[in-house]
Specification:
repeat; single chain; Serine Threonine Protein Phosphatase 5, Tetratricopeptide repeat; Ankyrin repeat domain-containing protein; elongated; ANK repeat; mainly alpha; Ankyrin_rpt-contain_sf
Amino acid sequence: MTENSEDAMPEDEAVVALAQSMLDAARNGDSAQLLPVIDQGAPVDLRDGDGNTPLMLAAYHGHAELVRELAARGADVDLANDRGQSPLAGVAFKGHTAVAQVLLQAGADADLGAPSARETAQYFQRAEIIALLEQAG
């Protein structure tokens, strides 16, 4: 092993640790930890091993204000994970009406993904989310 490759290992580990901390912060709704890192240049659409972004994780766990802040920083509100699920479909599954409203205000498409948010909301009989989707068009 050369000196350079030994130096690269800790840096690689630091990058992985930073990515994991960002994803954990999104999952936990910890905007104080996540947003400054993004503001300093970390990728807003960073993906985990399943293709979930911070916005997807924040949305799925019901953190409406963090979702709003991520969208304002350029997060793709329609970026599907590796299973073809959009953030809005995940929210429809979980029943997070406030997050659905934020995503729709940010331009999320209710018909993307498999199943789509519209299909998911209908299947799980999420009346409030169905009404939001109908208002959005």
